[in-house]
Amino acid sequence: MKKIVILSLHLGYGGIEKSVVSLANALSKIENYQVEIVTVYRIYQEPAFSISNKVKVTYLLDPKYNPNKKEWLDALHNLEPINFFKQSVKSLKILYKRHNEVAKYLKNTPNIDVVISTRTFLNEWSAKYASSKTLKIGWEHNHHHNNMKYANAVVNSAKDLDYLVLVSKDLKQFYQKKMELYKCRCFYIPNALEEIPKKMSPLTSKRLITVGRLAKEKGYLDLLKIYKDLKSEGFDWGLDIIGDGKEKETLENYIKNNNLLDVTLHGFKNSKEIEKLMSKASIYVMTSYTESFGIVLLEAMSNGLPCLAFDSAEGAREIITSGEDGYLIKHRNFKAMEKKIKDLADDLEKRKELGKSGRSKAKKYTMDSLTSFWENLIEKKG
User: CA 41, CA 362: separation in Å to the nearest integer?
Assistant: First the structure.
């Protein structure tokens, strides 16, 4: 029996966390693999995504040690010196406990054959505290976006690992050059879909849809501006935005102030609920400034939706073949995006053509198709 441990920051809502759960579920199906997710924080009582009963889940910290960044910032901004001091002390205590508990687990847990770490600090601690006999794999999901400070942090954290897995070809090429002086080897394994929906959207509903964290880098305010311009020209489609995050209030205010009655902010939805909403949509629109991989595009394609995205999102450039399964809009050109939305809205046959091609592409990215890449990597040493 081979014991595989995946180190995660938490098991709440997020792309990394969803990927962790998907990989753990897939690896647990392989004979002789014993899979455990070891997560630092317990943000929610139950994991955000469904975990197989074959996968063991271990939380290292009591919820009282969950991050207090929001409380710390509130105390700072509200000029509360006593509370700020208390929150600073608490933050240091949390960081101390985090380091100690991860180190203790890695040093004292017997027979860990493989450890897969998902953050830079977890890479460092895996290399430092796990047994020399343990295969150590870093799994990098974030794009550096030309931030060399971050990129160098990734390199330094992974230099003593055996492998670094990157979720895009672009990242693999970038880090491979950076890692030449170290023993760590880079591999490209894209993120995967757990399953393909049985049915495609008929693409007849007048609905645009987008899914993701409500953060500035996702460009949802830009999407609302584009949508507002379309409405001013008589565009009669609705817009569904699925997700939650810090920008929610900003988006709500923009929708209210501009009387965008056909926009619905759905909040967070599970995979089945997202699939249901996608089955009622006809065009997927991504306005992200950056994306490492863009798994949501593949989810949309698996539902047969044609996809539109700005080419500033690196992950979109890897997934969308412009003119075949969607379109990439250059230079964040709002008018060009508006034209493509209107063109597709007026052309059901083109939507079906693009959607069919996208669904075929999505089938190549299922977890069943990609698990073998992980299995091959895991079996390279041992």
Answer: 33
CA distance 304 to 301: 5
As separate numbers, helices (DSSP H) first and strands (DSSP E) second, the chain gives 14, 13
Stated length of the chain: 382
**Is the CB of residue 116 less than 8 Å from the CB of residue 135?**
no
Element (H, E) at 329: strand 326-329
C-alpha pair distances (Å), 269 with each of 44, 126, 140, 275, 283: 15, 33, 25, 10, 19
d(CA 219, CA 20): 25
Tens-digit pLDDT profile for residues 72-119: 999 999 999 999 999 999 999 999 999 999 999 999 999 999 999 999
Beta bridge partners of 36: 5, 56
Averaged pLDDT for residues 131-150: 93
Cβ neighbours of 171 (radius 10 Å): 26
Report the chain's mean pLDDT, rounded to a whole number: 94
